[in-house]
Amino acid sequence: MIDLDPALRPWVDGAPAAWDVREAVRVAEDIAAVRSVGVDWEPGDEEWVHVVDERILAQISKFFPLALVLGDDLAEVFRSRHAEVTTVVITAADAEELRASPDLLQRTVLSAGWSDEFNPEQFSALDLFLESV
Amino acid sequence: MARGRGLLIRKALEFLRKTVRRARRRPAPRHGPPKPTGGFEARPISRDRHGFLTDGRYRVNSRENLKHTHGQALAGKSSFYPGTDVDRLTLEAAQRADSANLWNLKEGTKARVTFDDHIGTHGETGRPTNVVNVYRRKSRTIHASPGSPVD
């Protein structure tokens, strides 16, 4: 199980001023260009930007400099090119391998709360994405 | 007297103009979902024993849909037009996505389904949209939001 608390805790009082949706998209597009893959996101309701090939390779928050990244190799690309982004390595976007304290989730990436289907003790990157829409 | 009548007529005309402008801005209430573009084989829709709307394959998460339901939508979020049966529209969008193979990527989490009429307002731009984004979980529960409009 991957604990997201250390990644979320620095932002309980708000995101860094320099981070916004444009930054998230810029980082996603840069990573996508390096890997010759695409970016999938939609302005408006979706709160995460995806770097994709046939699957989701990275999921970047619009509100916090946080990226959930598939594998160490890609995480290293993030670290070398975008050190301001906190990376958390996952094995698959739909792998239910993440956990976080409800209080931290509520104060950061799931400020609108979550549905009965979401379990803070075991969820996937995609669950975070789906709960935010 | 004639001057007073002229003023009255001007005011009446202005009132009419405002009423027409308001009517044009406000979409007509819906009592049923619009139809997706193109044909598809619809599965019958019913409620399961827990009260969830279902077509036997998917089950609608009504609570998630509330985020985009007129009058209850969260600030800044896209919302469906008043009177839209959002849960039913969600199921029809999912069925259409199945039929036309619209689910994206390997994970198949999301589909953009285009309808033949505007279904709501896009939160980011405030523009009317005829796109429904439908989202599905591994558990096959689904919810939807108005997507960014097709130009």
TrEMBL record, chain A:
Superkingdom classification of source: Bacteria
Protein name: Uncharacterized protein
Annotated source species: Asanoa siamensis
Automatic annotation (TrEMBL), chain B:
Amino acid composition bias (Basic residues), ranges on this chain: 20-33
Source organism (scientific name): Asanoa siamensis
The protein's name in its UniProt record: Uncharacterized protein
Segments of skewed composition (Basic and acidic residues): 44-56
Region described as Disordered: spans on this chain: 20-56
